[in-house]
Amino acid sequence: MFAQVLKILRKNKNLTQSDMANMLGITRQGYAKYENEESQPDFNTLKKIADYFDVSIDYLLGRTAFKTNDEEIFMEDISEIFEKLSTMKKKDRKTIVNTIDALYLLINRQLNKQDTSNLKAIHDIIYDLMHFDNLTKKDEFKLVNLSNTIDLIDLSRTYKESINSSMDQIIKNKFQNRSS
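Above: the chain sequence. Below: its structure as tokens.
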């Protein structure tokens, strides 16, 4: 399996066996033995190959269909969400699915334009919302005097400023893209 995966990765990058051998610091014949299943690389060479192609060692060895650990974790997270959705009330499930769908459309639009400059700002907005949600569940939030308007305004201002800054970055990226 390793030999097949290695050959596919090499060809997808339009590299020759000599290119790979040079990158790994071995002879072309030594590299060819990997692709012909006559030899296997040592761990350090395997790590070099995985790093070069930005894939996991498990992927190289055919132990997973996911090229990176991030992909595998992402799919596990999606499976977990799917399981939770199946136990929810229809109204709640619809809200969550619509939210995920909106986020998917937003990300997909950025990827289709091959412009990921806004994704960092979108991430920051979501992170701020998530952080605020986590904060409201902690004991320290109970220390905030909810009847004190100034405390509420200060707390709100902190997150609004951060979200507004991220939104400003999206607008700035939009104008920069138009002018180029």
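The two ends are 46 Å apart (CA to CA).
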